[in-house]
Amino acid sequence: MDFIIMIVYLAIVVLAIVGMWKTYEKLGIAGWKSIIPIYNLIVLFERFGWDMIKLIFFFIPIVNIYFGFLLYKEVAVKFGKGDGFAIGLLLLPFVFFPILGFKEEVVQE
What is the mean pLDDT of residues 1-18? Predict the structure, then answer.
């Protein structure tokens, strides 16, 4: 039973990583930058023109959820999606990042 749970968990993690990798590539960012914690946020900040001081808010509980939503909203808008999709990116990244990464959608500039 534990082995099955481990395999399912590993599949979910791999799906999330591959989805983020492809999404970053569609945004014009090298895919490997998506798998490095904190650096992946810095890269998105640079891509969307955010001040680096906002990174501090990602270390404050509850506040980080709000700023994560704002950041993912920027990502969703680039793909022509709305607020609901940004919430999906925040809460279910293993579902919503592969949708962005593997769909034939064009990034809006």
Answer: 94
